[in-house]
Amino acid sequence: MLTPTSVDAFHRFAIAAEQIAATTKRLTKAAILGSYFTTLEDADLRLAARYFAGSTFPQFDQRVLQIGGSALMSALVIVSGAEPDTLQADLVKRGDLGDVATDVLSDAMLPTLRLSEVGEAFAALVEIRGNKRKIVGIVELLKRATALEAKYLIKLMSGDLRIGLREGAVEDAIARLASQPVGKIQWVNMLTGDIGETAVLARHNQLDTARMHLFHPIKFMLASPVEEFAEISTRMPQGFAVEDKYDGIRAQVHIGLDSDQSLHGTTINNVRVALFSRTLDEITRAFPDLVESLATVDPGSGLILDGEIVPIQGERILPFQELQKRLGRKTLTDELLQSVPVAFVAYDILYCDGKVLIEEPYEVRRSRLESLSFDTPRLKRAISQRFGDVSHLEQEFQAARDRGNEGLMVKHLQSTYKPGKRGKDWLKVKRAIATLDVVITAAEVGTGKRSRFLSDFTFAVRASETDPTLLNVGKAYSGLTDAEVQELSDWLKEHTIQEFAHGRVRTVEPKIVLEVTFDRVQVSKRHKGGYALRFPRIVRIRSDKPPEEIDTLETVRQLADQLENSHSS
Ligand code: AMP
């Protein structure tokens, strides 16, 4: 039996991860994690908490180490000396490259790698540009690892430990470590934007010292779909707020004085502004024209707004497609900025005058939002109306559509802002045409001028809110521009899991989310989930949406019933 050479060895991280993977009980997972955490020094606790939460860097940090499967595979081929075909076959059998590493790497190494060294190696890797050089960096790291350590290094580098642990379980473990209620840990994690820092504060009984940091994004509150107005009446019998559902890009805006030193944002006239996307990536640079307008707002002692970036023409909000012309461009010329002007429509306020507002009810937040003065046409407030019941909702839905918006958002008047949660306090009443958010699971080369690209996409929904199993429900090939297909095809080649027919058909890492529309939903014996979409078309690539948030089989089932009824009535 090999003994680790140091108390903070990465070896022990791997062993704890193995134990956690071996149990399905959430409480046992948290207990194993809690007792592992107690043995670590602060610096290592910071890293281990982040790694178990599935991220290599703090959440507020914009660095992400997500290395494609093919680069990791190439590195493993070099380190193990095994034939690529053998590894590929093993990958198909095992389904996880980390597991393949334990099959092919020698067990004879003594564990010497420290957690801190892993942290340094990840920080160096994220800076390396170019696939070849990155592979060299990965090889160097893997060579220092035992087979078991390599398994978890690979999992961490690919962006997912896959041991059935979410950030919530890590929060549970920290709560145990510090004998604190988990709600308090969640709150501090939200404030600091770093589960690692949260763990260290908790251990030292310093949770109360955590302060909100401007320019660290907070997770977004999400909405649930409703199919029938009756559901609104049941959930919110006392009345509710109704806002338009704007079809743009969700964004969180941070505005503060420049004395708030930060990695993020752009400063204009002493006011610093940063924009973050729904995936918490900084997108300030893509909207220089908006930043200028946002910098005219008096930030007081700091402001965080939640809202939507939409394309506009004068007062009119334009379809999302207009905005697409601006997205993904490497350089934004003045001409482009002028031809596609955008506005920010604020619909929530999370921080103002040195106070975090997320625990305040909707009505209080709304009146704070209304008290802000916006003196530019590029900044708007969502219209918010109070409705006592659902009798006029249909009419309002149509009015929202006529205003160029997607539908309605119905919000509970007493609801707090729940970061990262998809609850029933915000309900979305979607457009008349049904669309689904799905993830690409496989791709195939197209025909004609698309025969050089992977342009036919098989896509899946999740089995349910709690079961992330992916179930294919269709295949789409129309709706994207040639440039989009080309870019997607390159990405999918890099993130292939398995190739068939000489690479003409591939299963791919399920990371790319598409919004698709279709004619109807059919019951299908060929598909595992039991349903298939007929004549699906791609509406857009939803790079703002992570695969964990795609639609579920339940929604497909509801759409099937609904469309069935509307066809028969
Ligand atoms: P979906 O993307 O279909 O899950 O719908 C939820 C999204 O609607 C949010 O993430 C926002 O980007 C968007 N949205 C548009 N208008 C509003 C609004 N008034 N309140 C909240 N979310 C909105």
Structure notes:
This protein is α+β, with helices and mostly antiparallel strands. Among the domains are: 202 residues, 2-Layer Sandwich (D-amino Acid Aminotransferase, Chain A, domain 1), CATH 3.30.470; 134 residues, Beta Barrel (OB fold (Dihydrolipoamide Acetyltransferase, E2P)), CATH 2.40.50.140. It is built from 20 helices and 22 strands. The strands form 4 sheets. Strands 3, 4, 5, 6, 7, 8, 9 and 10 form an 8-stranded mixed beta sheet that branches. Helix 11 packs across helix 12. It is globular and about 70 Å long. The N terminus is likely disordered. Adenosine monophosphate binds next to strand 1 and strand 2.
Features:
globular; binds adenosine monophosphate; 569 residues; OB fold (Dihydrolipoamide Acetyltransferase, E2P); 8-stranded mixed β-sheet; single chain
The number of helices is 20
What characteristic shape results from the CA principal axes? globular
CATH topology of one domain: D-amino Acid Aminotransferase, Chain A, domain 1
In this entry the ligands are: adenosine monophosphate
Give the helix proportion (percent range): 25-40%
Name of the CATH class of one domain: Alpha Beta
Q: Give unreliable regions as ranges.
A: 1-6
Roughly how many Å apart are the termini?
A: 71 Å
- What is the arithmetic mean of pLDDT? 90
User: Structural class from helices and strands?
Assistant: alpha+beta
**CATH homology superfamily of one domain:** DNA ligase/mRNA capping enzyme
Main sheet: strands, sense, barrel: 8 strands, mixed
Radius of gyration (Å): 25 Å
